[in-house]
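Appendix B, example 12.
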Amino acid sequence: MYYKIGIDVGSTTLKTVILNEKDEIIEKSYQRHFSKVREMTLEHFKSLKDLLNGKKFKLAITGSAGLGISKDYGIPFVQEVFSTAGAVKKCYPQTDIVIELGGEDAKILFLKGAIEERMNGTCAGGTGAFIDQMASLLDMEVSQLDKISFEHERIYPIASRCGVFAKTDVQPLLNQGAKKSDIAASIYQAVVEQTITGLAQGRPIKGTVIFLGGPLYFLKGLQERFVEVLKLSKEEAIFPELAPYFVALGSAYFADTTEEIFDYDEVVNLLSQKKEKKIEHLENPLFTSEEEFETFLKRHQKVTVPTRDITTYSGKAYLGLDSGSTTIKVVLLDEDENILYRYYSSSKGNPVSLFLEQLKKIRELCGDRIEIVSSTVTGYGEELMQVAFGVDIGIVETIAHYTAAKHFNPEVDFIIDIGGQDIKCFHIKDGAIDSIVLNEACSSGCGSFLETFAKSLGYSTQDFAKKAIFSKSPAELGSRCTVFMNSSVKQAQKDGAEVEDISAGLARSVVKNAIFKVIRARDINDLGENIVVQGGTFLNNAVLCSFEQELGREVLRPEISELMGAYGAALYGKKVQKEKSKLLNLEELENFQHNSSPGMCKLCTNHCQLTINTFTNGQKFISGNKCERGAGKKLQSDLPNMVAYKNQLFNSIPLKAGGRAKIGLPRALNIYEMLPFWAELFRSLDCDVVLSRVSNRNLYMKGQNTIPSDTVCYPAKLVHGHIIDLLEKNVDAIFYPCMSYTFDEGISDNCYNCPVVAYYPELIQANISEVEKTNFLYPHLGIENHKLFAEQMYEEFKNIIPKLTKKEMEQATEKAFKTYHEYRETVRQEGSKVLKFAEENNHPVIILASRPYHIDPEINHGLDRLLNSLQFVIVTEDALYPVEGKLTTKTLNQWGYHARMYNAAKYVSEHKNMELVHLVSFGCGIDAITTDEVQDILRSKNKLYTQLKIDEVSNLGAAKIRLRSLQATMKEREMY
């Protein structure tokens, strides 16, 4: 007789289960392997010597990292899905669905009906690694995050597609004072939503569900979110005690079916043999000798700032604070701009308490000898810190960084700042910021990118950076995002790359991402001659050297690279402060208290979820609001806003008639463009039009389990909720036609709708089974030929609308076309009126270039009101008359809505005091083309290009920084 051993080597952990002759578990283990798969497996086997020595056993290995060991050492391998299914069927035969979350893997198994398995790809979003990253961001252990999640009062929308997107959502919440308990529960909610949309992909999760894997065993808060969201009873939700070991258990059961028998010494000898592998795709080393590295260091160490002893100095001082995306920075300067005090730290998910601690310390050191004349703050947490501590001035990050860079090199013409989660690049021309480029919502290639990999490999960020310096063979890893890069790193390790090679390879990846993905440089000379680099990431000498090598020229990195935002803020305050500082004194700081609580704004139908921060002095800072009213302020701006105008116009379209039939239309996608047409057509036939209700988060959740793809844009995801809402209304038919073309406006070579807009009705029919029980009409319609259109519509509705005649439909069709064109002319006339108002009153204009459905407040998240609050007049791209007919573009100009954007860019390029903001939905493939075209049109006439990517996450913290940067640049350009 023999034992059976199952080994599960996952992406981050090693699990083993040993069964005796009676199939009883006599040993099980669960540990992280830090990518040292062979070494950890060997070490674990050695620890089992007393149990296994002298015993015969059968052995099988499984898991995402187990296949390599199987191939190298001839150990039987079982595919992990097969292993899981085998163990589940043996132990829990009543199971309908298996959900398993591992370190970087997630899978769902449908065991009843059509048996099917779905796994995540190379992206680790919504897995254990994702939760680890979020816990690190909150500066707590995962167990602590789990504990506080039970104290939550509200759930915030957080993207779980990957860790870097989620950081972009979480960080503004932290900087705005949101409770960590609410964020913890929201992180779990994001994992659940990722499982439903990313894995189930429209297939319902019903019946008996067994939850496997470490995260779903150890994290009770995550269990609670799954049960609550999936509405499972206690009997339907199974969380087995063996959940972390289940795949290894299945592997042990499989081992029993294999032929080969092993003993302890044989396995130890096998695993002790390190397999040498030839590494391909290597890059040149960063430094060829220690002398070269020393020369490099000495050159960069020359760019320093003098310091002065704060304990002996007397006089005036100037304070700069930088509340960044992941760090906080503090600088105190004397009259001669020497540094009296400096501080840099991770924000640890609680920037307010860290700044409080530092301000107390500074006040104590200053005593009565030093008067803080000005205090200035910049960064994500700018507004919160101003309210909390009475900081005198708040400035946008770009101005702070330019002020600092100019201090070191007055001739600077290009600045690049790589921080924890953002990359900021700006060209300087004639002493003013000429153009700004920021990374999109994804923070790949930033400081957190390197930090994540350092931790996953068991190193501190600093030690990991040092490893890269003398790598002889840096691994070529490309420049993909963090989670996709995991597969490249693991492959490099399997091929024999050392930690040094991976660290150097990642440093190169950061630089390539910045130059070719963010800046999109076509020529290195586009960057300029006098380049200043800054941000904490450039303290990594490997990143700095990679940047210089990629450019083929030397750059300037100040010794205070990581403090440049705070340093620039202090310099700015010294220049502009006129009144006495209002910064809290020591006594006020000693008595400082801060509380945050959730709330809801009920001043309009948006019902914004608010976070209300209250401080000792009675001051409040409110975040989560989409306009000033939600923050308890009076509306500062009554400037024209064509997004608001178009919503009013849309909502004023008459829908009621004589009730001959009730026709349901979803308030989604191209219906925002076509409602004037459809409403007139059906009302002319004496039919009532019934719209689905206004979009909101709850409506999205209603249709979430029918969405087959997590990568489709948010406007498309909302369609599912709108259709389900219409199914609950008493309508005779739901009408949602497929339309390949939109109206030809004479500004493009063709006028296609994008594939999602054109054919999403077919996807709805295939994924929402309830539509089969009603009249769901989704014909393919063309609008070029009026007669043919009327014939098609008659055939569709002759059995829906009582006693309908062809003549009636023909007349209704002509009325519909006439009404649509009148509607479009109304919008354009309003656009002309608004532009005239702006010109006469010298107001800056933003052309908000988007698609018709981006006027939906649930999709644009109140960006129009934010722009209004920054004193911009807002005009939409469809409110402009054609500039010059068909525009000549580099790619085929064939998309109707996008042609309007090109027309808008052309219009902006020919007018002063006007810029364009390009609103883009995540998941839009056509925008990859549109972005470059719009940018080229604008830059050909020295205009700025600002892109804002939006999805279901409503926090506008990062967007506000971009728009304020745009505003500051426009003002600077006016001055020069």
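The longest helix spans residues 806-841. The first strand starts at residue 3 and ends at 9.
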